[in-house]
Amino acid sequence: MKILLLSWFYCLIPFCIAQSGTGTEERIKELNDYWAEVSRSVREGDFQGYKATCHKEGVLVSGTNNSSYPLSDALVRWKKDFTATKEGKMKASVEFRFSKRISDPTTAHETGIFLYSSGDSGENLKKEYIHFQALLVKIKGGWKIMMEYQKSKASQVEWNKLAVK
Fold first, then answer.
1. Nearest C-alpha neighbor of 153 from the set 98, 113, 93
2. Are strands 54-62 and 67-70 parallel, antiparallel or unpaired?
3. Nearest 5°: phi and psi at 105?
4. Domains in the chain: how many in total?
5. pLDDT for 33-48, tens place per residue?
6. Which CATH number does the domain housing residue 103 bear?
7. 80 inside domain
8. Which structural domain range is residue 59 located in?
9. What is the spatial order of strands in the sheet that 54-62 belongs to?
10. Are 124 and 36 in contact, with CB atoms under 8 Å apart?
11. pLDDT for 116-152, tens place per residue?
């Protein structure tokens, strides 16, 4: 009996290992879609769309300011820029590139650099490259950011080293 149980156990190991990778491509697509929605909402000044990508108990951590506070407080501050973008008074965009992506079916930790561009409706856009980490959870309605850690400023050289994913 002991040998039968051990042989059954050892037969399952390859199956379990093979199953652990299933869904990864679909999950990366979902996460890419999440970041595309963040980008779209910033570009279009869609505050409600952006807010919908955030968990209601999310946290923003700023490495440059040595601060941590509810993401809802940051949303209050950022709303005026969304409104100005929507009204055509300014332009804004955000792009993401990743250096490390760790996830399972319901959680994700994304590391990389984002490029936030903003300015008047002319061509005078200020570009900010920021090292970031994001912790996301998948709940009803899709992926939501729980924690955004804006670690430090990055350079265009660092940005260019990261592949577009």
1. 113
2. antiparallel
3. -60, -20
4. 1
5. 999 999 999 999 999 9
6. 3.10.450.50
7. yes
8. 23-161
9. 67-70, 54-62, 142-153, 125-139, 107-120, 90-103
10. no
11. 999 986 677 899 999 999 999 999 879 999 999 999 9
**Phi, psi (5° rounding) for residue 140?**
-50, 130
CA 138 centroid distance within chain: 12
Q: Which residues pair with 10 in a beta bridge?
A: none
140: helix, coil or strand? coil
Residue 12 lies in a domain: no
Quote the crossing angle between the two packed helices 71-86 and 24-44, to the nearest 10°: 60
Beta bridge partners of 128: 116
Q: What are phi and psi of 164, to 5 degrees?
A: -75, 125
Q: What per-residue confidence (pLDDT) applies to 23?
A: 78
Residue 77 lies in a domain: yes
The verdict on residue 58 lying in a domain is yes
Q: Residue for token digits 């199956």?
A: 15
